[in-house]
Amino acid sequence: MPSVLITGAARGIGYATARHLAAGGWDVIAGVRNEVDAARLNSANPLFRPVILDVTNDDHIAALDKSLPERLDAVINNAGVVVAGPMEAITPAELRRQLDINVIGQLAVTQQVLPRLRQSKGRVVFISSLNGRIAFPLVGAYCASKFALEAAADALRLELKPWGIAVVLIEPAQTDTDIWRTADTLLEEAAATMSDESRELYGRHLQGLKKTIPTSQRTARPPEKLAAVAEKALTARRPRARYVVGFVPKGQVALVTNLPTAARDRLVLAINRQPRGLQKH
Q1: Is residue 12 part of a domain?
Q2: What's 103's DSSP letter?
Q3: Could you confirm whether 142 is annotated as catalytic?
Q4: Would the pTM count as exceeding 0.90?
Q5: 147: in domain
Q6: Which of 15, 142, 202, 243 is catalytic?
């Protein structure tokens, strides 16, 4: 029975992937942040084993050596958060939190399990995003974390070739998880942390993005679709370096990343209903 460690497995993409792989015969070690989530997973699905793993906690990462089976075939680095707001208004502490969870934590977990993966010639999978290829306004911190993750994964893929360890990036667009279901609340909370001056400066930006949320929620793909892609990344004889999830997102990446910068900027601003000039009084 092949084994896999999945971080951020308490809900959303991580939970759907854990459930999908466990049903397919994998020994799933499900990383969760606390005992409450561990108990909930135990009662919800006895097919996989929860382990306490906050990816920003050095002690949790060090303890993995005692929690994992002797043979580990893969790690799926899924844990992540979204810090929203204009780049000018996000505090350094929030920027650090964004990068600590989405980048440093994922790499720290990978470093910890690489000795096992070297023995098994296993695989490293990172759950990235289309926003690791295309930056959007008001989620710049999140995009920065995913761009960084993509670069780190590319370097890691090249470095680990001598040991036959494949490194794969999965790039979904909007996915039907708590993050998108509560996107309105996330945006409101981001606005609440901004100064009065910043809210006045970026009021039109915030209102424009808010108008796009219902469409994004309607078009969000179920996390089970991504789980199936993750299984393909783990089982393909020669996995791709990147898997874009969904036909439309594939077209978006192909189009937007090949446009001249000025044209790309106009398109991204239009998609996100962002102002292109100062409001006239």
Answers
A1: yes
A2: I
A3: yes
A4: yes
A5: yes
A6: 142
